[in-house]
Design goal:
- The chain is built from five helices and two strands, in the order αββαααα.
- The chain has a two-stranded antiparallel ribbon.
- The longest helix has 55 residues.
- It starts with a helix and ends in a 7-residue tail after the last helix.
- It has 213 residues and is mostly helical.
- It has three domains: 93 residues, no CATH class; 29 residues; 35 residues.
């Protein structure tokens, strides 16, 4: 593990309190963020940034002096870095999920989530109907018009409305089709009458009875 290797390398400078590896430099303290073993993002490849925190400030000064001693070796005889098939085997073993450990992490997450939701609901209940500094009153979903529960009756009403919408759409499509058919028949009749008039005029010209004026 990269964190374990960095902690081991810098332990000669003093007691290492924590090691944080991230994709790019990030300000702020990450103590409030709890890393997940099962639901974490895919680790970034390539160059990364590591933050090594010492328990005492003297560790930082000692770490700065390490640059004069030459490069630090991660893989040594006492602490070799796994490569090849041994690395693949270790990666596969680490990918196997322990059901009990997974359940414990999910339970802890849901417990924190329920606690957070309860705190937000309690805070919203306290602020309900209380004007702020400018005299505005905050209205939440639990005010005059709370959100409707998605019960079976509400689902049936929703399905009925969708059915009515489909029926109206089909009726409008039928009217549009009927209007096109009527228009097409009218054009066909006009063409037929035009052809009959052409034939009648041609016949009258042949009989020399055509008098346009």
């Amino acid at each position: 593990c990269v964190k374990d290797a960095l902690s081991r390398l810098f332990s000669r400078c003093g007691h290492v309190q924590s090691v944080d590896v991230c994709e790019k430099p990030e300000p702020g303290d990450k103590k409030g963020k709890r890393a997940s073993k099962f639901f974490s993002c895919k680790p970034a490849t390539g160059f990364q940034v590591a933050y090594v925190v010492f328990k005492k400030p003297a560790g930082v000064q000692a770490a700065k002096a390490l640059s004069q001693e030459g490069p630090l070796l991660i893989s040594t005889e006492s602490h070799p870095v796994k490569t090849g098939i041994s690395k693949w085997i270790a990666s596969y073993a680490a990918s196997v999920v322990d059901p009990e450990e997974l359940k414990a992490e999910v339970d802890n997450y849901m417990e924190d989530y329920d606690k957070k939701m309860a705190e937000e609901e309690a805070k919203a209940a306290q602020e309900e109907g209380v004007p702020d500094e400018e005299g505005w009153v905050k209205v939440t979903r639990k005010g005059r018009k709370p959100g409707l529960p998605r019960t079976e009756a509400a689902n049936l009403r929703l399905l009925e409305r969708e059915k009515q919408k489909r029926a109206r759409k089909e009726l409008l499509n039928f009217y549009a089709w009927q209007h096109r058919e009527t228009k097409r028949e009218h054009i066909a009749q006009l063409r037929k009458k035009f052809e009959e008039d052409k034939q009648r005029i041609a016949l009258m010209r042949a009989q020399r009875k055509f008098r346009p004026y």
